[in-house]
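Lab manual, section 2.4: Encoding a predicted structure.

Procedure: take the sequence of the chain (253 residues), apply the prediction step described in section 2.3, and record the output as structure tokens. A sample record is shown.
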Amino acid sequence: MRVHVVSDVHGNARDLAAAGEGADALVCLGDLVLFLDYADHSRGIFPDLFGTENADRLVELRTARRFEEARELGRRLWAGRDKDAAIESAVRKQYAEMFAAFPTPTYATYGNVDLPHLWPEFAGPGTTVLDGERVEIGGRVFGFVGGGLRTAMRTPFEISDEEYAAKIEAVGEVDVLCTHIPPDVADLCYDTVARRFERGSRALLEAIHRTRPRYSLFGHVHQPLSRRMRIGRTECINVGHFNATGTPFALEW
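Recorded output:
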């Protein structure tokens, strides 16, 4: 059995269309939307609406963790516009392309920048969306937990620690634990390019210690200090920043 796993697709529909080649199934750990590409500030919803110069400024402020100034920039730019309608329209265009690229079968959960309420419009019969749920793939049980925890970035699908922990609890014991964010371990949460810690889940870390899955698979941190480590019997693996690499992680058994 061979399963390919991707995360942080961020608009890379071209490589996503080939991500399932040679695999029995594709697993997607979320972040399909590209709001702003930090490597190329001309790409994404924000620069499409407001131009590259404003995107440069937004990245500068966020990178310096000057979040209130970044929000003030956003408020000025959005003044007089229907922000929710504009973003949903742009996301729908991206989702149409992303979901059309998914092979059959695909098993997917949400990332922190996704809009879960739109997914039913685009997920075809070959795509199974799971969040706080389990599914058997090739004789192994996979558990899925989507979204991220609350941060100063205020991305669309951030939830409370309690809600996230409840979804982890609902999944229970599995062979492969699939999440968008990593367990709360410093080396797995630190982004070496952004030079900051992303939020990992303490509840996920505790579940790994308690239920001892074979694998914990996740994304979210684009350039982690450590891409993989073992916690007890569990191999914890960041499956990679698919937007940049275009290459899925392969899991075989």
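Check your result against the sample. The chain is about 35% helix and 20% strand.
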